[in-house]
Amino acid sequence: MPNQNSIPAVGNERLQQTTLWTALITPFHSDESIDFATLTQLAKEQEAAGNGILILGSTGEALAMTPTEQQDVIRHICALDLSVPLMVGVGGFQLQQQMQWLDFLQDFPVDALLIPVPLYAKPGAASQLKWFNSLLDASNWPCMIYNVPSRTGVALDEQTLGSLASHPNAWAVKEASGSVEAFTRYRNAAPSLQFYCGDDGLLVDFVAAGACGLVSVAANAWPEATAHYVRQSLSQTVPNFKTLWQQASNSLFCAANPIPVKALMLHQGRLNNAGLRPPLYMEEMQELTPVLNADAAIYQWMKTCLNQ
């Protein structure tokens, strides 16, 4: 059954205290099968850093995996009995499949769900409202609503978000529009929800606008450093690291995510293979210099922070 600590979302310290969620990659062998041994290692690295783990999001290439593979990932991660909370992605645009996915998750200790605007179909406000309400009604977990128009093709409707805010299973919003102005409009539309920045390099600006944390790609490559970055940003320490993190984060999007971060993690020795699932191919990554420079810069920044 679902983790009873995660119901309801309001007052749930396990979720409220998690300011960094790592959108975990899925490591593959050269034959494209899932590398479960490395997946274990990566999850335990995130646990050691105290980071919440988002599995089967877009960074995890979930939509390129079969339903059976997705289920196997859930079984494997949950069997690790990690001390940090787990959030699971709910994607696609076929409602019945998502309902079946929620039904499967009933037997696992999941803490929360990430629910994006439906992909590809470009639903308007009325359709978005019905879609989200259907999933929120069916959920036994707190849900983070996800706005990522660069991937879904359409932005989350602000009035729709305002209507969803009163749902008992609506807990938070991952806002990844890339715009502080848009973030502010969404937050004003649903001030009762928790807002998380969905763009690593914009965290300082989003915190100033009211963000309580980060859902991160960069934390795959830099688990401890990203956690430190989040803590410093939330403490509103003088953000002399803002430009550094913007540049480092941008390097991880010099090709389609998660191509650059996997290439970097291979170089770090944390992956045995930087394999991807079609339609993504490593041939997009023609130049490693940006991510290698970013890696060196973040390493030096973290070293300086620890010596202060």
Automatic annotation (TrEMBL):
<keyword id="KW-0704">Schiff base</keyword>
<dbReference type="GO" id="GO:0009089">
    <property type="term" value="P:lysine biosynthetic process via diaminopimelate"/>
</dbReference>
<protein>
    <recommendedName>
        <fullName>4-hydroxy-tetrahydrodipicolinate synthase</fullName>
        <ecNumber>4.3.3.7</ecNumber>
    </recommendedName>
</protein>
<dbReference type="Pfam" id="PF00701">
    <property type="entry name" value="DHDPS"/>
</dbReference>
<dbReference type="GO" id="GO:0005829">
    <property type="term" value="C:cytosol"/>
</dbReference>
<feature type="binding site">
    <location>
        <position position="215"/>
    </location>
    <ligand>
        <name>pyruvate</name>
    </ligand>
</feature>
<keyword id="KW-0028">Amino-acid biosynthesis</keyword>
<keyword id="KW-0457">Lysine biosynthesis</keyword>
<dbReference type="InterPro" id="IPR013785">
    <property type="entry name" value="Aldolase_TIM"/>
</dbReference>
<keyword id="KW-0456">Lyase</keyword>
<comment type="similarity">
    <text>Belongs to the DapA family.</text>
</comment>
<dbReference type="GO" id="GO:0008840">
    <property type="term" value="F:4-hydroxy-tetrahydrodipicolinate synthase activity"/>
</dbReference>
<keyword id="KW-0220">Diaminopimelate biosynthesis</keyword>
<keyword id="KW-0963">Cytoplasm</keyword>
<comment type="function">
    <text>Catalyzes the condensation of (S)-aspartate-beta-semialdehyde [(S)-ASA] and pyruvate to 4-hydroxy-tetrahydrodipicolinate (HTPA).</text>
</comment>
<comment type="subunit">
    <text>Homotetramer; dimer of dimers.</text>
</comment>
<dbReference type="GO" id="GO:0019877">
    <property type="term" value="P:diaminopimelate biosynthetic process"/>
</dbReference>
<dbReference type="InterPro" id="IPR005263">
    <property type="entry name" value="DapA"/>
</dbReference>
<feature type="site" description="Part of a proton relay during catalysis">
    <location>
        <position position="58"/>
    </location>
</feature>
<dbReference type="InterPro" id="IPR002220">
    <property type="entry name" value="DapA-like"/>
</dbReference>
<dbReference type="InterPro" id="IPR020624">
    <property type="entry name" value="Schiff_base-form_aldolases_CS"/>
</dbReference>
<feature type="binding site">
    <location>
        <position position="59"/>
    </location>
    <ligand>
        <name>pyruvate</name>
    </ligand>
</feature>
<feature type="site" description="Part of a proton relay during catalysis">
    <location>
        <position position="120"/>
    </location>
</feature>
<feature type="active site" description="Proton donor/acceptor">
    <location>
        <position position="146"/>
    </location>
</feature>
<comment type="pathway">
    <text>Amino-acid biosynthesis; L-lysine biosynthesis via DAP pathway; (S)-tetrahydrodipicolinate from L-aspartate: step 3/4.</text>
</comment>
<feature type="active site" description="Schiff-base intermediate with substrate">
    <location>
        <position position="174"/>
    </location>
</feature>
